[in-house]
Amino acid sequence: MKLQVKFSLYNAITKIAIILVLGAIILFSLDRLAYNQLDNRLLKKKSKIIEHLNDDEIDSLLNNQQSFTDYNILKEEFIVLTDIPDNQKDSIAKIYSEKREIEGDVEVYRILNYKFLYHTNWYNLEIGETMTALQSIKNIIRFYMLIVLVAALLITLITDYAFSNFLLKPFYLIIDKKINRVDDPTHYNYENIPTNTDDFKILDNSINSLMRKINTLFALEKQFIANVSHELLTPISILSTRFENMLNTPEIPVEHENKIYASLKTLNRLKVIINSLLLISKVENNQYLKTEEINLKQELIDIYEDLEDRIADKNINYTLHLEDDFNFTGNKALIHTLLMNIINNAIKYNVEGGNLFIAGKRNQQQYVLIISDTGSGMSKALVEDAFDRFKRGNTDESGFGLGLAIVQSIAKFHKIDVEIKSEEGKGTSISLIF
């Protein structure tokens, strides 16, 4: 999971938790707040009525038994004043909810009940406000509060994701440009990624420092291989010449002659290995030019002519099918070597009377060449190590494990992708993607 996604998930979970807690607190407190607000209104009305009370008002209320305020049509409020015995004492106003029938309609009211003394008489004052409107207001408040909470959550999640994306952009640029796209230390870009975050600056500088060390070691390794390979060719040539001269010596014993032949064979094998390593080193050091126009079909035809005798010796069914004529710019000698190594392996490790099928087709902006055989194949472990030097997928002593290493070096030099599919006992398929 990406760091950005983890940040977003963490922010989302924490914000959802906070909003749920706050929402629950507000929702559970809404009733209490609404009741407190309504009770305060009733207390204020009670104080106002008592303050402005006079004899005429008392007579009017006592005679009517009940009256309504300005909203009498909706019956939202009422005031009831009743005469009570003189044995009452001043009481604290009591507020409660109760159903009342007003002019034939039953409504739930919030009622303030207050007993007071006016002149020499005790009275009971009841002031009521309907709770229907209050409940409607609470429902509306809940609905809009829910909308506001959801909108706030979505806005915060989107802004958090956008901000984390902006914040982590230098990190992904470092990963993409300085790690994922680097296939060769010599092509590494040491320019720092623009960022104001100190942690990313440290990461960028650390990767640059590490790549400088790797590039130095890589260059030393390639130079060492090239130098050693080149220097070894001279003594090998001298030894080969001496052994050949010894073979021309008259009356040489047979046992000595056999040992000299074996030594010459070993020197030739060593010479092939050194030349292969030199070829890989020169390709990796970009010592070849890519300026020739190459026709892929013609190259395959030339290679078939070179290997026709070997194909006939093993009675292999050879099939070449190219849907389109494909041309590209590269190094003709290297491409010839690349194709020769792959086709040579397809012949070498094929079964007697097997099949060798070469097919080419366009795939969108790519051209794919597939070389398949029905040979012994390789295990999954051997396929993973196929491009490693001196790793062989069989016990044939005539191989050195450098053929596919050369293929890989030449393919990288020409920006060709190589894919291998193989199954033991069924054969191998190698795809070249131009």
From TrEMBL:
Q: Which UniProt keywords apply?
A: Kinase, Membrane, Phosphoprotein, Transferase, Transmembrane, Transmembrane helix
Subcellular location(s) per record? Membrane
Segments forming a coiled coil: none
Recorded hits in PROSITE patterns, A to Z, give: HIS_KIN (PS50109)
Q: Does the keyword Transmembrane apply?
A: yes
Which InterPro entries does the record cross-reference, listed alphabetically?
HATPase_C_sf, HATPase_dom, His_kinase_dom, HisK_dim/P_dom, HisK_dim/P_sf, Sig_transdc_His_kin-like_C, TCS_sensor_his_kinase
Q: Name one GO molecular function term.
A: kinase activity
Its UniProt entry gives the catalysed reaction(s) as: ATP + protein L-histidine = ADP + protein N-phospho-L-histidine
The UniProt record lists the keyword Transferase: yes
Domain Histidine kinase spans what residues?
A: 227-434
**Membrane-traversing stretches:** 12-35, 143-163
The record ties this protein, via SMART domains, to:
HATPase_c (SM00387), HisKA (SM00388)
- EC code: 2.7.13.3
* One Pfam family cited in the UniProt record for this chain: HisKA
Q: What class of enzyme is it?
A: transferase
- Protein name according to UniProt: histidine kinase
Organism field: Pedobacter fastidiosus
